[in-house]
Amino acid sequence: MEETLSMVGKAKTNANIGEGLLESSGSKCKSVVEWNQVGGFGGTMSTIVKMLSEVNINRKHNMILRPKMITNDHHPEVVVFSALDSILNSTLDTLKLVRESISWTNIDDYNYSLKSRSYTQHVDTIKNLSLQGKLGVAWWLRNKTMVKGVIPDVVTHNYLINGLCKVGELEKAEWLVREMSSRGPSPNSATYNILLKGYCTINDIYKARDLVSSMIVDGKENMVTSNIIIHHYCKKGRITEARSLLMKLTDENSKKNLVASTTIMDSYLKNGDASLGLTIWGEICAKQVDVVAYNVFIHGSCLNGDVIVAYKFVNKMFKTGLLPDRFTYNILINRLCKLRRIDEALYLYTVMSRMGVDPDRVSYATLVQGLCMIGDVDMAHGLLNRMLEKSMVPRPVTWNLIIDRYGKQGDKRKALYIRDQMMINGVSPNVFTYNSLIHMFIKGGEIDEARSLMKEMLVAGGPLPDTVTYNLLVGAESKYGHLYSADEVYEDMKKRGYKPDVITYTELIRGYCLRGKIKEAERILYIEMLENFSLVVVDHVPFQILIKKYFKVSDFNSAYGVYQTWFNYVGANKDVEPAEKNVLDGNNHVAERPIGNLLDLCTIYYTMGHPYFDHHVKMVNDALYVNGVNNVIVAETDQWLDVEEDMA
């Protein structure tokens, strides 16, 4: 950089000399003066290039004028232009060196000068740029150093290749590896393994296998290579191929890859194939087994619900001289909590502390979740306080579990206290926190408080509400008969871009039916919900609510129409549960037998859980007796009553 400043100083001096000569000769040429006026070459590269262009134009102009002036014997001018021409030649050479030493605009911040830095600084800069994701600048810098005869080592190239693979630029990474092979430095095993991982990331298994084959031929394949390709196969569920590939990659005379074998065993156990998992375990036991292999098998046993086997392997760990680590205890505690065996989980928690293994956030969070599951929220609160005493700030999910449980128990004071403690410890409440509190207030009948929390989310910079938040408010307003407010919340939901789901429509239909506004309920069902059926997964509940309402007002024809709509919808919708579809398929004769509509509706009503089945059977019989078809329907009714007894 000192050399650069020296060159710039010379250029300034030459420019000042030229300016004096121009003034003495009375010339109107201002090029050199203008260069000096831009700040002593302190402008941007674009300004310098512009000045260079002007210098070239004026220089050509001087060359044209010189013969004419000599012919006219204007000797002073000849002297001036000869001096200026010499100055310009020197200045242009100086500016050329300045331009080469100035970095382009994208790397001005680095103040980089190739001549003033050592080799270590060059490669460190390329590595840092690659890690920061500034691959364009790193690529340019790598090329520039190679032009200057400085070739970055293979580790530096690996950093750049890794950055390219992370952003999906596999073609550039491939080109760089090929150039390394031809110009140096030669790629090593790490280079090929990085490229292999890139292929696996984009799921290009064919190129991955070809690369592995070439690595084996060149002697570049190692255990890391096996681990990468085996992990990818297992991740895609191709466990058999992974095992076969491991057999090919592993030399029988060398130590087998413990990590790859453990990965395959883990995949078998996660898929519920305990027998093959045990087979792989036998192969692993032929090698030196570590704690990770034990943890994998213990985790697989817990996933398959076999805690006894998990305990047996813990005992084997002690016998072989291996001690369970934090992961071992967390695996067992997690499974015991899911089985609601909280006492055993708490006992393991005390054991791990006595064994010198400190519980971490996962340990505490798992126990808090288990305690909240069985309703022991006070003990969960105690564990939360213990975490804070150990300077472990829980994640939002742990706070939310306790807030939700206190809310469900109706303890508003403690729920709000936990929320305040959450904020004091620097954890911002999220949408799940607000939903738990809103549900608590709605359950207690405090709709105004629930509205205030919703407004806080929308106005006061809190987390934005989600569909669950809106459904809670829609359901509460509908339940308490505030249909206008429920409709306002529903419209605001759509206005803000949220998609109503089946719960939203069900709550609106329920509210209108409770207030006897069946036409509005039909509008929600037929227009709002079913017209968007491709976007909404619909179950039987909204139909059931409307059918029950029609039965209560003895409007059997409308009830049957809703049933037919439900049946037609189920026939076209694959998202409805098979049990519901089977019930409807069993009643497919309804459309062919109009005289049995009421009887079939009665059966559907029973199937949907109505408590007054006998009453409605009598009502159907009375209605049909008036129509003079008593004998036929009574027999059929007896059959349905027999069905009722069988179902009972």
Walk me through the structure.
With 648 residues, the chain is mainly alpha-helical. Among the domains are: 2-102; 360-439, Serine Threonine Protein Phosphatase 5, Tetratricopeptide repeat, CATH 1.25.40; 466-534, no CATH class; 541-647, no CATH class. 73% of the residues lie in helices and 0% in strands. Residues 1-81, 95-116, 574-599, 609-613 and 623-648 have low confidence and may be disordered.
Short summary of the structure?
Helices cover 73% and strands 0% of the residues. The chain is mainly α.
What integer value in Å does the Rg equal?
40 Å
How big a fraction of the residues is strand? under 5%
Largest sheet: none
Number of helices: 34
N- and C-termini, Cα separation: 94 Å
* Average predicted local confidence, pLDDT: 75
Strands, total number: 0
- Could you say which overall geometry the principal axes of the C-alpha atoms support? globular
Alpha-beta classification: mainly alpha
Low-confidence stretches: 1-81, 95-116, 574-599, 609-613, 623-648
Kindly state the percentage of residues in helix.
Answer: over 70%
Q: What are the key terms here?
A:
648 residues, 34 helices, 73% helix, 0% strand, disordered N terminus
